[in-house]
């Protein structure tokens, strides 16, 4: 501004001009000085915005990871949907990636643990595992001190970096085999010998494995029952609280679904080791919250007393697997199929298996044996299961149904598996066909 005033005074002293002309000159000079300044400032602001927009250039450590020989790790990063969060992290600060070698993820990793990580419901565990290998600071191993140091990872856990007398460096018990394998301005990648598993992910896997270890095994050498007294011929030894009952589940059921509803177990009963009523209430509530199984819940609670009977069976120590048809399948039932006395109960009984089965246990069984016949609460009918299209198919022919929604509810005593059709015993269908054929011949 001082320079501008000096120029104006010199101009007025040299040229005798009027005040109006002087104002025009001032406006012209202001445009010449201020407009370039504004243009330069706007360009700098745009440059800063582009710098902090989170875009990653071709020289980024993330691009180097995707193009490196750590292919197994890069594939897991893409499957875990972590590219965008890592791009944001790289835009803020440099990072250090401890990349396990491909053999650690292909051959050395427990196959069951790898299946657990790749299941859609365990995406959070997979993300936590991968972020446990990334530190939000740049760590140059050739400049690291010999003493051990703690570093916080992006998974909110810590890893310990130690150096041995031999010169080898370890990150949480995993040896660093390729230090500074990839070096970029925004990060560095160190190759390590094996996978780093945080304690939270290991705990989630252990909990899931403990639940899966509860497998339904067909009982062998079942105790004999005296048909006259309906009691065991030989007294069985006292069982521990919580163990499975000696008698089959059919002997604990009510005499008839529509004639004598099963009473709820009284408090302090001889076998009341489990709160079956609460567990049945929880799984019916889960059906309602899950959506698409309102008709099944309505039949169990309102149209029949099966919810109460199932609660009593679970309280007595029995386990159940419910094949629940969805609302679309239940809507296909006709009035004739539901109008007969006891028809709703008989339909549901054919969908209840007196075993504890999960989607994985049933699929493994049909993969191994081809076809499996499961007992149902509707004696003497059994439901057939076989593998089809990578899933489990129940029933025969046109009356079959696929496992549609696996593991809707699993608590170790009751397992609920959603299917897309209502099942009927094949003997019942063939009997009806023979009756119709005989009637047509008599006419």
Keywords:
443 residues, alpha+beta, FAS1 domain, 3 domains, seven-stranded mixed beta sheet, 19% strand, disordered C terminus
Describe this structure in words.
The chain has 443 residues and is of the alpha+beta class. The chain has three domains: 1-34; 61-212, FAS1 domain; 259-432, Roll (FAS1 domain), CATH 2.30.180.10. The protein is 42% helix and 19% strand. It has helices at residues 2-14, 19-51, 61-67, 71-79, 83-92, 102-106, 111-118, 123-131, 199-212, 276-290, 294-303, 306-315, 327-330, 335-339, 343-349, 359-369, 426-442, and strands spanning 95-100, 134-135, 149-152, 158-163, 169-171, 174-184, 187-192, 225-226, 231-232, 320-325, 352-353, 371-375, 382-388, 391-394, 401-410, 414-419. A seven-stranded mixed beta sheet has the order 2-1-7-6-5-4-3. The longest helix has 33 residues, at 19-51.
N-to-C span: 116 Å
Number of domain units: 3
Query: Which strand order does the major sheet show?
Result: 2-1-7-6-5-4-3
Helix content: 40-55%
Strand content: 15-25%
Q: Give the low-confidence spans.
A: 41-54, 214-219, 256-272, 431-443
Number of strands: 16
Structural class: alpha+beta
> Major beta sheet, specifics?
7 strands, mixed
CATH architecture annotation name of the largest domain:
Roll
CATH classification, class level of the largest domain: Mainly Beta
């Amino acid at each position: 501004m001082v320079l501008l005033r000096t120029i104006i005074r010199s101009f007025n002293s040299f040229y005798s001009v009027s005040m109006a002309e002087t104002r025009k000159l001032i406006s012209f000079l202001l445009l010449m000085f201020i407009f370039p300044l504004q243009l330069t400032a706007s360009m700098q602001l745009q440059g800063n915005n582009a710098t902090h927009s989170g875009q990653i250039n071709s020289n980024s450590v993330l691009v180097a990871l995707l193009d490196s020989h750590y292919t197994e790790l890069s594939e897991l990063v893409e499957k875990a949907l972590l590219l965008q969060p890592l791009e944001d992290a790289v835009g803020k600060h440099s990072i250090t990636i401890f990349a396990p070698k491909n053999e650690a993820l292909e051959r050395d990793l427990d196959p069951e643990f790898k299946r657990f990580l790749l299941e859609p419901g365990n995406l959070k565990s997979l993300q936590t595992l991968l972020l446990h290998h990334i530190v939000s600071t740049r760590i140059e191993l050739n400049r690291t001190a010999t003493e051990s140091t703690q570093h916080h990872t992006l998974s909110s856990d810590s890893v310990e970096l130690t150096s041995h007398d031999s010169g080898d460096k370890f990150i949480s018990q995993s040896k660093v085999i390729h230090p500074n394998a990839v070096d970029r301005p925004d990060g560095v990648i160190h190759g390590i010998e094996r996978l780093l598993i945080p304690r939270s992910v290991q705990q989630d896997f252990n909990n899931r494995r403990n639940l899966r270890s509860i497998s339904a095994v067909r009982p062998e050498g079942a105790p004999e029952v005296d048909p006259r007294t309906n009691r065991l011929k030989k007294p069985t030894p006292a069982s521990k609280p919580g163990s499975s009952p000696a008698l089959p589940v059919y002997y604990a059921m009510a005499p008839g679904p529509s004639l004598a509803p099963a009473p709820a177990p009284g408090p302090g009963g001889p076998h009341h080791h489990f709160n079956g009523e609460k567990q049945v209430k929880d799984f019916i509530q889960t059906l309602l919250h899950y959506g698409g199984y309102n008709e099944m819940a309505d039949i169990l609670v309102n149209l029949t007393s099966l919810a109460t009977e199932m609660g009593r069976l679970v309280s007595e120590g029995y386990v159940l697997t419910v094949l629940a048809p969805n609302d679309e399948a239940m809507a296909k039932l006709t009035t004739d199929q539901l109008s007969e006395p006891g028809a709703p109960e008989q339909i549901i009984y054919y969908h209840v298996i007196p075993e504890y089965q999960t989607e994985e246990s049933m699929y493994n069984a049909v993969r191994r044996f081809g076809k499996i016949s499961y007992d149902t609460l509707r004696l003497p009918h059994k439901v057939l299961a076989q593998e089809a299209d990578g899933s489990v198919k129940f029933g025969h022919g046109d009356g079959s149904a696929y496992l549609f929604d696996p593991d809707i509810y699993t608590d170790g005593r009751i397992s609920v598996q959603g299917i897309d059709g209502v099942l009927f015993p094949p003997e019942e269908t063939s009997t009806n066909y023979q009756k119709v054929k005989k009637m047509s011949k008599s006419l």
